[in-house]
Amino acid sequence: MRALAANGYTIYFNETGYEALHSLIQGNTYSSIFVLVDEHTNEYCLPQFLGQIATETRIEIIEIEAGEDTKTIATCMEIWSILSDLGADRKSLMISLGGGVVTDIGGFVAATYKRGIDFINVPTSLLGMVDAAIGGKNGVDLGSLKNQIGLVSVPKIVIIDSTFLETLSPREMRSGLAEMLKHGLIYDKKYWEQFLDLKTLDMSDFDSLLYRSIEIKNEIVLQDPKEHSIRKALNFGHTLGHAIESHFLTSSFPLVHGEAVAIGMQLESFISMKKGSLSSEEYYQIKYVLTNLYEVRAFTHNDIQSVLDLLIHDKKNEYGKVQFVLLQGIGATAINQIVENELIEAAFEDYFFQ
């Protein structure tokens, strides 16, 4: 698979990624290399990754706990302190080896430590590969509010090694798949249609589906790096999805990101249909795919009210108005859409009463 030129960096795939890593390390006089992992990637991915690095430069491993609860300023402070204690300077390199939480934190820490050191993203989850590690967004949560603190800073390179997907659970794979489905819904109808019958999907072709998903996100980001216009389309399903994820974050059975986004996409597709920009046939096609992939989560009246209250904190909001991304048919979107609470509540009723 050919490399993709991104906004100030390059996305490499499989073997070519490690070749690019060697060139980068050899071409820069890095004083030290820090690899950020969580306990899972430390065990399952780090040995394979270190086996690909040939350098005399000092390598240090920093491990954080896995999970969304770790994505906090407190974690960043611990990492900044470790970097300082281990003598990291402005010529150090940070490599984030992990899923979306690790790459989000690693990029944020690197971009702010001593006003910025070089960093590389090596996503090991499907969600990280098709979404979190691409586009330059880095940051942490503020309490239960998703991605409230952060900045845009691009890595030197991104390495997509699809063999890391073999370490994932089916639930983690479905979480990442939600973002792939989103890319088809907002940008490429033919790509979406490849997922209509997953039973006939040849998983030996998964690399090509993975590649196209990353290509779609990269194409959108190249057109709008700072999210002033078309990049907002990538938030389809996330306005309600992030609020749902935040609401259930402290429950006995929290949702992973892709599960919450899948619910958000179904709800926002229903809203699109009710507003007349999505046909009923297209909506029921979307609903069929999503409900066959993701377990339906029950919502009480209090749950729905909590989600509505959380919407005011969405990053896309402007002048106190909640901004939605809605579908204009499969493969196209309308951004900055205002949606009445009554319509959101109707969407929840349609979702829960299958």
Concise description?
It is built from 14 helices and 11 strands.
Characterize the structure shown:
This protein is of the alpha/beta class and 354 residues long. It folds into 2 domains: 4-167, Rossmann fold; 170-352, Up-down Bundle (Dehydroquinate synthase-like, alpha domain), CATH 1.20.1090. Helix content is 46%, strand content 17%. It contains 14 helices and 11 strands. The chain has helices at residues 15-27, 39-44, 46-50, 73-85, 100-112, 126-132, 170-187, 189-193, 206-223, 238-247, 257-274, 280-293, 301-310, 341-352, and strands at 4-5, 10-13, 32-38, 59-64, 92-98, 118-123, 137-142, 145-152, 157-160, 324-327, 333-337. The chain has a 4-stranded parallel β-sheet. It has a 3-stranded mixed β-sheet with strand order 1-2-9, with helices on one face. It has a two-stranded antiparallel sheet with strand order 7-8. Helix 7 (170-187) runs parallel beside helix 11. The longest helix is centred in the middle third of the chain and has 18 residues, at 170-187. It is globular, with a radius of gyration of 20 Å. The termini are far apart. The relative contact order is 0.11. Residues 62-174 form the 3-dehydroquinate synthase N-terminal domain. GO terms for molecular function: 3-dehydroquinate synthase activity; metal ion binding; nucleotide binding. InterPro entries: Dehydroquinate_synthase (IPR050071), DHQ_synth_AroB (IPR016037), DHQ_synth_fam (IPR030963), DHQS/DOIS_N (IPR030960), DHQS_C (IPR056179). Catalyzes the conversion of 3-deoxy-D-arabino-heptulosonate 7-phosphate (DAHP) to dehydroquinate (DHQ). This is 3-dehydroquinate synthase.
